[in-house]
Amino acid sequence: MNRDFDSLVGKTFDLIVVGGGIIGAGIARDAALRGLQTLLLEKEDFAYGTTSRSSRLIHGGLRYLGGLQFRLVRQALKEREVLLGIAPHLVQSLPFVIPITRGAPLHRLALALGMHLYDLLPFGKSLPSHRRLSRRQTLELEPGLELEGLVGSYLYYDCQVPFVERLCLENVLSAAEHGASLMNHAKVTGLLRADNAVCGVQVQDLLSGEVYQVGGRVVVNAAGHWVDCVRDMLDRGVKPMVRRTKGIHLLIPQISRHAIVLFARADGRLFFVIPWQGYSLIGTTDTDYSGDLDAVDAEARDVDYLLAEVRRAFPGVGLENIFYTIAGLRSLADSGGRGTSDISRQHKLVDHEKRDGVGGFVSVLGGKITSYRIVAKDTVDLVCRKLGLEASCSTAEAPLPGAPAVPQETVEQAAQESGMPVETVAHLATLYGSRFSQVLSLVRGDAQEGQPLCPHCRDVLAQVRHAVEKEGALTVSDFLLRRSTVGLGPCQGLDAVETVAQEMGRLLGWSTAEQQRQVEAYRASAALGQRFRVKAADVGAEPA
After folding, report:
1. Is 91-159+243-340 a domain of CATH 3.30.9.10?
2. Of the candidates 460, 428, 434, which has an alpha carbon nearest to the alpha carbon of residue 447?
3. In this model, does residue 53 exceed pLDDT 80?
4. C-alpha to C-alpha distance for 502 and 442, rounded to whole angstroms
């Protein structure tokens, strides 16, 4: 990717997208594939916000059936199939177990009906239908499950995207390959106006401090939970368009073989215990949020809630088992006074020409990661109508750059030829798909490039060079958290941060002082995942 701000000067794009999460990246890819001159601007890094703090699931949303949101669930299940087709190297089927307990006959009846509907709603699904299991069969699958009153379970299938950051990044890479300009660490600081229309943006390169003005026929605000901040550049003091809610996850040693669906006793909310990278990811919560949008963390009460609920099924889980926490924000299109879990996740497009009398500006509200592609399609359809263009969407058929998935025999052959362990090559193939050979080619040229970065993961030194030269990584955090799995392991990448900073410093020409600044910035970011411990100590007690 060519990050050249000077090339933007004097240019007018058909479309400027503000926000480089999965939805913004999807919009940029869709627009580029349709031939629109497209610019994507992201103030941090691609997938920095909500995208990388999700449950990492590609699913219809079983719980939305309880709210009779059949259209939302059907749409998501259809998109699940699309993603299995265009990103089979990143999206995989995942079995889920829903334990059934004695009592609550209406709940059990509703669950049975929901299971049948979940199978019937999608057309042409490729995943197996659900099965009802006895108590014995359930415990054979999950011997560690100790839920009181267990009488059986349902086994059904959805999907997981273990490295959702890669799903976002591959949309970015695809957009670039089709002519889009994409800038991370590029903060939009103002909207340019001409009469009653937005005609571009003012953007600051956060690495150099330079400020530029760029023209655009349409500007799309896809900034996620910052969407109101961007809209406020148009008109401050108006009613918020979104309601922000916080969700947290806990990373602990693996306690289940399958994904487990549980219902919290405190409020009836559904949450998951998900196998991920050899660990368990537990989440999520859903509480209103009005704090700092750039420093979201899990509070002691959030952790306490999840621990208390998961212990009902896995009594041995305690505070000492938590490696770290992850906290992110949802931006829900419905900002009404209902409970957070009752608000629809359906996306909404706001054409500010109709709403505020200001042309050339569109805001994207809400949406789910599973449905990012259809949100992007709807958005680009609207942009094309505003521009008077006719161009069809092809993103449901066009594979993402790393597709297809790499066969095991190819992995074994590549390991033999490169002299690297099969497990390491398999990891690279899982991460990069068919493009894993780009990393291996660096190892073949220099054996040092094959050295592991951290004892908690399979990532190697060559990935740093690949991330800088091919994938737009510009900070240590960019690499550790969004170009590799290093920062996602139990040490949060802290065991590798010095090595990565040194290598990125060599490639990017950093001074020793800049390398150290990068290390400290990363450590401060990682500390957010441990802040709940400090808060618990401040109130004189740890979470239960």
Report:
1. yes
2. 460
3. yes
4. 18
Percent of the chain whose predicted confidence (pLDDT) is above 90: 88
Please report the pLDDT score of residue 134 as a whole number. Answer: 98
Pair of tokens at residue 117: 């509907």
Sorted by sequence, the CB contacts under 8 Å of residue 537 that are 6+ apart come out as none
CA distance 472 to 440: 19
State how far the Cα of 17 lies from the Cα of 356, in Å rounded to an integer.
Answer: 19
Question: Strands, E, within 284-420: which ranges?
Answer: 287-288, 324-332, 348-351, 361-365
Count the neighbouring beta carbons within 10 Å of the beta carbon of residue 268.
Answer: 11
Domain 5-50+165-240+345-387 annotated CATH 3.30.450.40: no
Amino acid 339: pLDDT? 60
Residues 6+ apart with CB under 8 A from 173: 1, 401, 471
Q: How far is 454 from 89, CA to CA, in rounded Å? A: 24
On the question of pLDDT at 537 being above 60, the answer is no
User: What is the rounded distance in angstroms from the CA atom of residue 124 to the CA atom of residue 130?
Assistant: 15
Q: Is 491 exposed, middle or buried (0-12, 13-18, 19+ CB in 10 A)?
A: middle
Alpha carbon distance 204, 214 (integer Å): 11
pLDDT band at 541 (very low <50, low <70, confident <90, very high): very low
Residue appearing with tokens 């550790």 = 480
Which numeric CATH code is attached to 408-530? Answer: 1.10.8.870
Cα dist. 89→83, 325, 428, 429, 529 in Å?
10, 27, 11, 8, 29
Domain ranges of the chain: 5-50+165-240+345-387, 91-159+243-340, 408-530
Instruction: Measure the CA–CA gap between 324 and 321, rounded to whole angstroms.
Output: 9
pLDDT at 342 over 60: no
| 357-371 pLDDT, tens digit each | 999 999 999 999 999
Cβ burial of 332 (10 Å; 0-12, 13-18, 19+) is: buried
Are 307 and 319 in contact, with CB atoms under 8 Å apart? yes
Given this model, what pLDDT does residue 337 score?
Answer: 56
Give the relative orientation of helices 422-432 and 408-418 as an angle to the nearest 10 degrees.
Answer: 120
- pLDDT attached to residue 2: 84
- Rounded to the nearest 5 degrees, what angle is found at the Cα of 367, between the Cα atoms of 429 and 383? 95
